[in-house]
Amino acid sequence: MPKSNIEDAQTHYKLGIAFQTLGKLRKAVSSYIQALKLKPEFAEAHCNLGTVVESLGKLREAEASYRLAIKYKPDFDEAHCNLGTLVKSLGKLREAEASYRLAIKYKPDFVEAHCNLGLILHEIDNLDEAAASYMKAITLKPEHINAQYNLGVTLHALGRLEEAKARYKKAIALKPEYFKAQNNLGVTLHALGRLEEAKASYRKAIALNPGYSAAYRNLTQLKTFEKKDEEYSKMENLYLDKTISDEDRCDINFALAKACEDIGDLAQSFQHYREGNLLRKKLLKYDITMDIQFFNRLKSNYAQLEKNSLKIAKNVNKLIPIFIVGMPRSGTTLVEQIISSHSQITGAGELPFVARFGHLIATSLYEANTNNLLDFREKYLFQLQKLSNKNPFVTDKMPQNFRFLGLLAAAFPEAKIVHVKRDPAALCWANYKQYFATKSLGYSYSINDITKYYSLYKNLMEFWEEKLDNKIYHLDYELLTASQESETKKLIKHLNLKWEKECLSPQNNKRAVTTASNSQIRKKVYQGSSEKWKKFKPFLKKAFDFI
Fold first, then answer.
1. What are phi and psi of 347, to 5 degrees?
2. Contact by Cβ (8 Å): 252, 266
3. pLDDT tens profile 200-246
4. Residues 6+ apart with CB under 8 A from 89
5. pLDDT single digits (tens) 475-489
6. Judging by DSSP bridges, how do beta strands 345-347 and 472-476 pair with one another?
7. In this structure, are residues 466 and 306 in contact, taking their beta carbons and an 8 Å threshold?
8. Does residue 510 carry a pLDDT above 90?
9. Mean pLDDT for the stretch of residues 162-170
10. pTM exceeding 0.90
């Protein structure tokens, strides 16, 4: 290539950078293209062209540019990182993970690549590695605000709440106006049972950003409204703002629904629940046919699981899982709080490990053979051991594990399974009125979807009951609240444990709780919660009558 071409290519490249810095993106594109005409293997020009066309919304062109940059310069760490961010936006999480890992391979101190890798690992539910990635970023750059914040998010998801609190506080110290960190600090304090501090954090987040709807939604879960006060008026003004996003409108509807319910304006409350749910379903793009197909696969694959069920000798394992399952909002949090009040039991909360390690086996995407079942068992117990606090029993109260009871019975013949049942109408209403942080409960944002999903759940539980030969202990939530002592004693006896009176005072259990019930379980067990839905009966148009 003539020397003049190389020099001219450099000139156009530098001009492109200047235009890009000034925000003159189309002129920047023209300059980079001119540079590449003169020097087609100019990796830096390909990479910069990618960043510009990506900002113009031309994602496919940007991806092609990043790949050309890597083709001509395989160790180009910045191009690998940029490609990772782009393919992540396209939903290609595994490709994004690979790109970030390559960026780090070629530049081990690449802070942004470590931080971005953490985001991907969290999204694919690899929380331990995500935390490690953020810690690496922080080690390299302690003042990295996003790494501190994201580490807090991951630590909260891992149940390491005190550590999460410390990270949020560090992010706030670095950036006092960081309203999202203030909100998340409130969520963590809420889970720790420090309710007044949580309310103060939510209010700080709102003071920093009066339009931050998520903080209002969180605050209303801790506040009982007696009238349409100043905070109500602020929420109403936000609701009336036609310019807010669907996400914000969803949040503020759930907030106003709770406030109106407190005040007794049930018609307005129902309207806000309805609007909030419609928006949440739209944002999640939920389609119940996916769950119908999923439940069918679970049932059709059970014969293979049963055929290869593990034969575990008694007392071979010193750690025994107690799986507490049921529909969300059925009372699983209360039951775990009761059980984990026993000195021999650690309450581990809602663990993601059954779905993470076993989903593919349960649905026949991996063969349900002995080796795969043993691998699933070992991976799960390894994670459980880390949470056990050296107790012989550990509860996993992920409600949705009801879907995987066939897998659990095959892999953990020694485990205890407690199924919490609740009045169907109360249960369906409790799901409808709840904003779940997880994106995996999309059925709960439509009355029609909820009733269909309840039927799927009921049918699957009947299937497991038939197949699992009385391995499931059914616990009636309403009966538990009405006859707390007798039902609790029967439960503890079923677990083959000696009676301890502390199990009758679950409100004194100081363990952290991260579920939607984290306020209720701080109170004494009370009756009547399953009757509350009836005040909304006039607005439901007999939706629950068939149940």
1. -90, 115
2. no
3. 999 999 999 999 999 999 999 999 999 999 999 999 999 999 999 99
4. 59
5. 999 999 999 999 999
6. unpaired
7. no
8. no
9. 98
10. no
SS (H, E, C) 280-308: HHHHHCCCHHHHHHHHHHHHHCHHHHHHC
The single-letter code of the amino acid at 504 is L
DSSP state of 320: E
Closest Cα partner for 316 from 387, 358, 375, 378? 378
- DSSP state, residue 316: S
Q: Quickly tell me which residue has 């012989």 as its tokens.
A: 392
Which residue type occupies 202? Answer: Y
- b/e burial code for range 303-322 (CB count within 10 A of at least 16 → b): eebeebbeeeeeeeeebbbb
Distances in Å between the Cα of 224 and the Cα atoms of 255, 258, 318, 391 are: 11, 9, 45, 38
CB 246 within 8 A of CB 276: no
* Average pLDDT rounded to a whole number, residues 379-393: 94
Q: Where are the beta strands (DSSP E) in 310-437?
A: 320-325, 345-347, 393-396, 416-421
> How many residues can be counted in the chain?
547
Cβ burial of 367 (10 Å; 0-12, 13-18, 19+) is: middle
Residue 522 has a pLDDT of 46
The pLDDT of residue 167: 98
Q: How far is CA 183 from CA 3, 86, 169, 210, 520, in A?
A: 58, 28, 11, 12, 20
